[in-house]
């Protein structure tokens, strides 16, 4: 007998991430029958009063089928061409399949630099919120046709986490090709056990994810668990479901224990600190002494130059850097007030000595507490 869960209907704004293997394959292209079922289930959620945003993979697989490619392209221009061809095919399918339900759709293509810049972040948020206000369903993907490594999200699991942050979602659902997180890969070990509920993502849970996995796409189970861990800091609940099985989404909203449910942290980071911790690319690292570690973690202080033992990487003022303990464990991230060469000169010194060494003093702090995020905690 299924174990009842608290109702998911308490979550108004939902991001639904659909994996490429759920709706497309290399040899057959887009699976419109399955996509039609998803459209029906999304329609039911909207009728129940939920706001839904889709993060949809599958453009490259759709483009492969259209271009007659039998194997995934390794050449970047060919991959981007496949994405361009497949994206229009994918959006046309969404347009047709949601129309019978009276749902208008809109295409949103994002790149990492559209989120790392605060003004662009706010602009993207305003666009998405306006679409929801007009009852339009956003279909979101990374802009693979022009993306290069420097601005790439990584995979659509990371993109879904960023979208959840952008719109202040309360629930993130990931449609995968497996039932959820197992203790091991169920395709290799029939005794593998599905984990129904996870209070917090620990090292043990991450190790299980590396053994579980999915059968394809750019994001496996490790990527999904990382996604769940990151959005938990936003106060977002995550549910991993098998998107190839019709009706599971309905079962989940009826309280049945399907898939794997990840609970959020009890304390939610502010939007700005979410942006610092999870949206920005890391440009360097500061290795701290033990006194600075304690000042950050237990006293909520700013990071002063006196607490910095060494500096790694090349970064400019305003870039994001990791703050590491003497043992190399990352304890925080923040926006630096000095560039790498300046930080090398003032590390270990008192704030009163900064102007004498540099010829100016931009701030007393290497990183101000307002621009500092303690990982696995709140600063």
Characterize the structure shown.
Strands 5-6-4-1-7-9-10-8 form an eight-stranded mixed sheet, sandwiched between helices. A five-stranded mixed sheet has the order 12-11-13-14-15, sandwiched between helices. The protein is α/β, with parallel strands linked by helices and 379 residues long. The protein has 14 helices and 15 strands. The longest helix has 23 residues, at 76-98. It folds into two domains: 8-273, Acetylglutamate kinase-like (Carbamate kinase), CATH 3.40.1160; 281-374, PUA domain (Archaeosine Trna-guanine Transglycosylase, Chain: A, domain 4, Roll), CATH 2.30.130.10. The chain has helices at 20-23, 32-47, 59-67, 76-98, 113-116, 118-133, 156-167, 203-212, 221-232, 248-253, 271-278, 290-299, 340-346, 354-358, and strands spanning 13-18, 24-25, 29-30, 51-56, 104-110, 136-142, 171-176, 197-198, 237-242, 260-262, 282-288, 308-313, 320-324, 330-335, 372-374. Helix 2 (32-47) crosses helix 4 (76-98), helix 3 packs across helix 4 (76-98) and helix 7 packs parallel to helix 9.
List keywords for this structure.
single chain; 379 residues; alpha/beta; Carbamate kinase; Archaeosine Trna-guanine Transglycosylase, Chain: A, domain 4; 2 domains; 8-stranded mixed beta sheet; 5-stranded mixed beta sheet; 14 helices; 37% helix
């Amino acid at each position: 007998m299924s174990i009842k869960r608290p109702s998911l209907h308490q979550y108004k704004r939902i991001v639904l991430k659909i994996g490429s293997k759920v709706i497309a394959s290399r040899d057959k292209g887009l699976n419109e029958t399955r996509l039609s079922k998803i459209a029906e289930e999304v329609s039911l959620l909207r009728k129940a009063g939920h706001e839904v945003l889709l993060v949809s993979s599958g453009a490259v697989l759709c483009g492969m089928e259209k271009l007659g490619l039998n194997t995934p392209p390794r050449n970047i221009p060919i991959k981007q061409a496949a994405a361009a061809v497949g994206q229009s095919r994918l959006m046309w399918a969404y347009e047709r399949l949601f129309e019978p339900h009276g749902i208008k759709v809109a295409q949103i293509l994002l790149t990492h630099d559209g989120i790392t810049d605060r003004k662009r972040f706010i602009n993207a948020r305003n666009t998405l919120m306006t679409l929801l206000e007009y009852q339009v369903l956003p279909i979101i993907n990374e802009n693979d046709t022009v993306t290069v490594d420097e601005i790439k999200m990584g995979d659509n699991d990371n993109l879904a986490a960023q979208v959840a942050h952008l719109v202040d979602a309360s629930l993130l659902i990931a449609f995968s090709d497996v039932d959820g997180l197992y203790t091991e890969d169920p395709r290799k070990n029939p005794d593998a056990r599905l984990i129904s509920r996870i209070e917090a993502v620990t090292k043990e849970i991450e190790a299980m994810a590396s053994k579980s996995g999915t059968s394809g796409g750019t994001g496996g189970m490790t990527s999904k668990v990382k996604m769940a861990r990151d959005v938990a800091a936003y106060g977002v609940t995550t549910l991993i479901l098998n998107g190839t099985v019709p009706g599971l989404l309905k079962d989940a909203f009826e309280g049945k224990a399907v898939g794997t449910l990840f609970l959020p942290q009890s304390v939610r980071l502010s939007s700005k600190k979410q942006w610092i911790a999870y949206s920005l690319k890391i440009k360097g690292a500061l290795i701290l002494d033990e006194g600075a570690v304690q000042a950050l973690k237990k006293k909520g202080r700013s990071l002063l130059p006196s607490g910095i033992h060494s500096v790694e990487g090349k970064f400019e003022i305003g870039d994001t850097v990791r703050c590491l303990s003497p043992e190399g464990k990352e304890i925080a991230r923040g926006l630096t007030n000095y560039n790498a060469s300046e930080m090398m000169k003032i590390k270990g010194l008192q704030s009163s000595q900064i102007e004498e060494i540099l010829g100016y003093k931009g701030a007393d702090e290497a990183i101000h507490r307002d621009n500092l995020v303690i990982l696995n905690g709140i600063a």
